[in-house]
Amino acid sequence: MKRIKCKIAYDGTFFNGFQIQPKGRTVQAEIENGLKKLHKGSEIKIYASGRTDTLVHAKGQVFHFDTPLQIPLERWHNALQTVLPADISVIEIIEANDDFHARFDVVSKEYRYFVQRGRRIDIFRRHYRYFYPYQISVENMVKAANHCLGTHDFTSFCSAKTDKEDKVRTIYSIDIIEHEDELEFRFVGDGFLRNMIRILVGTLLEVGRGRRNSEDIVAVLSSKDRERAGHTAPGHGLFLWQVNYNN
Amino acid sequence: MKRIKCKIAYDGTFFNGFQIQPKGRTVQAEIENGLKKLHKGSEIKIYASGRTDTLVHAKGQVFHFDTPLQIPLERWHNALQTVLPADISVIEIIEANDDFHARFDVVSKEYRYFVQRGRRIDIFRRHYRYFYPYQISVENMVKAANHCLGTHDFTSFCSAKTDKEDKVRTIYSIDIIEHEDELEFRFVGDGFLRNMIRILVGTLLEVGRGRRNSEDIVAVLSSKDRERAGHTAPGHGLFLWQVNYNN
After folding, report:
1. Contact at 8 Å (CB) between A171 and A200?
2. Which residues form the signal peptide (chains A, B) (predicted)?
């Protein structure tokens, strides 16, 4: 048996999220079906760094699986791509140590969230950008974001649907970058709770728009009350950008 | 009656082309259905600058129609957008002269064609870029493109399915621009035949790749034989960019 570590990108538009569901097309099911074809009908289970929700994209999702196949490593890339649909792309595939685990070994993750500004929605970006046509103060958003850095209980920024008991996470950095008619949010942390990035972005945008004060975030965090935070920004603006492991 | 001139963008991915067909979703049918709603069930026919094929996009398609409605011009934009699907966007809507015609009054048109290069297809651009992962000489393509400028019989660069007798057209400019991992072709002309841009791009790419000589284009043009030209580049890389009228 070999343990294979694989990095993929996917366009979340036509997926019902990453994790296998009773209904709807999922990234995990497509990959496991593809692997089953390569393994002549044997079921192969994959273990990912974490799930992503409906409509959420990935540039660098990572998963591992074990295989008895003796395919040379350089052929794995094409072999796997051949059995995957057009909206999943193999970025890198390597042999990992036997004890590597794509979820438990995560050191940090980066998510990026993209907002389209301006008067009118650009239909060519409609599946990849959150259209937010309001005047925004980036300066006030940066102030608010800085209050979220470091280790906090993020209960206020977490969907009630989470299955995680421990809501303490560490955010290492939040960068807010202005492009021509876009805003890009970059979050790096040791891990993120369900909807956490999307609620952070929704809340920061409300600060940017002047609907709340940048200092307000401190009270929202300490309240541990989801109702105090802002709206959940839609999934289609979010990209799981990179998953970092030791070495 | 007022004559309305409207500029729209559409994402061709999920359309069976512009023109109404017995089967499949079309841009024209969606717009006429929307206008029918605004006109309380009356049929309104639209006249576009020309059709676009399946998968082809538009940034600046233009059409006109006549309406008895007394909607103030500033409200037309939102009124029409409201009855259109998410993959058609109203860019501009104005009142035109009674004798304006979106097809007959065209002075020139600009099409742009986009190619993605590199080792691997970028799934986030898969509906908007032609993936062509070969080494290319832009210099040789520019030489070949220059032979196509001016007035020629473009029979060699036209689909047999055309309904046009006269195959003489004038190309005013062809620009080939290199971006990071993309090539952009810009064509301005008085009009283009069916598949003409796509066959030109396919042929130019074959020149760029070294499969044909840049001088070869001269013989292809004068042969008036479609078999002599290159492959038809796929529709999803093509955008109807702009339609120009007098004033």
Report:
1. no
2. none
